[in-house]
User: Which sequence fits this backbone?
């Protein structure tokens, strides 16, 4: 395992966010305790031959200051983006760009994977909820959500996604996303760009609701659903998803919306049908949000558009 000096002695290679003067904004979106940890970086060294002494040359090791647990190896140019700074910037963006009372009752679901190497905040806005009447005549409610995804292991960009949560089954879906920083965390941050994305997200939510209302009454044959799934998934996974589609169709009708619900169920739940492999590294959150990104691209694909046009 890489070793590094005391966390209290090492400077951090941290991105400095621009200062924002409005003191009240952070109170609108307080960071959950689970995500309120600090990460620093130290040169990594190793001992090629026991007793011969340590040498450097493995890059830098990012680690949590509260546990001193290593989070990942990165190169020198990689810059750390602290969770608290992201929350502060997002709070100000919401204050400037969100509709009136949008933050009333906002709920944050925090989660981490790999000991904090990846951090997630799933933020639901109950005051922004739209009803959706389904083909069977029953209704569900879609609630606007923002998903903030940070990482400290060099594996992914810092990303903010906008979407919705289906109140009937807590399935999550992503409509669009914005990378605040690239995978290497070297891209410059723009508060103005973040505010533009947040503001546009509320408009996008209304547009997507209109699309989803069309899906709820767009019939689909079992063979059409099967063909779509076989084109986009392995044989085993497509069979699982087709089985899930038949379950969703009982409540929602045999529609494109039911197929969407089967896919979002797969992406949102660590269930017996779509279980996340237990690696002993608390990977469930990362795997599930990775699935959400996977299926988000399907919903904008030509294959999906063909289902609606058939």
Assistant:
């Amino acid at each position: 395992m890489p070793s590094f000096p005391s966390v209290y002695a090492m400077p951090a290679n941290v991105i400095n966010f621009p200062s924002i003067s409005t003191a009240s904004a952070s109170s609108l979106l307080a960071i959950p305790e689970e995500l309120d940890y600090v990460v620093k970086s130290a040169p990594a060294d190793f001992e090629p031959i026991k007793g011969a002494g340590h040498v450097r040359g493995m890059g830098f090791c990012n680690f949590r200051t509260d546990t001193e647990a290593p989070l990942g190896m990165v190169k020198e140019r990689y810059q750390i983006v602290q969770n608290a700074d992201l929350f502060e910037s997002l709070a100000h963006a919401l204050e400037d760009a969100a509709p009136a009372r949008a933050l009333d009752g906002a709920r944050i679901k925090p989660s981490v994977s790999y000991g904090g190497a990846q951090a997630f905040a799933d933020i639901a806005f109950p005051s922004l909820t739209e009803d959706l009447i389904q083909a069977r005549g029953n209704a569900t409610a879609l609630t606007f959500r923002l998903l903030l995804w940070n990482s400290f292991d060099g594996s992914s960009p810092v990303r903010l996604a906008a979407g919705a949560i289906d109140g009937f089954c807590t399935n999550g879906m992503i409509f669009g996303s914005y990378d605040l920083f690239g995978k290497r965390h070297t891209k410059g941050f723009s508060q103005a760009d973040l505010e533009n994305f947040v503001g546009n997200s509320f408009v996008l939510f209304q547009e997507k609701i209109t699309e989803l209302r069309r899906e709820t009454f767009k019939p689909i044959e079992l063979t059409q659903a099967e063909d779509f799934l076989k084109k986009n998934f392995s044989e085993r996974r497509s069979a699982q998803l087709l089985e899930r589609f038949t379950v969703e169709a009982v409540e929602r009708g045999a529609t494109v919306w039911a197929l969407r619900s089967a896919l979002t169920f797969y992406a949102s739940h660590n269930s017996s049908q779509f279980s996340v492999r237990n690696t002993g590294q608390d990977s469930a959150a990362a795997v599930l949000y990775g699935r959400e990104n996977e299926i988000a691209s399907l919903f904008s694909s030509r294959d999906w558009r063909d289902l609606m046009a058939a």
User: Anything to note?
Assistant: The two ends are 56 Å apart (CA to CA). Residues 49 and 55 are 10 Å apart (CA to CA). The chain has two domains: 25-212, 218-309. The longest strand covers residues 118-133.
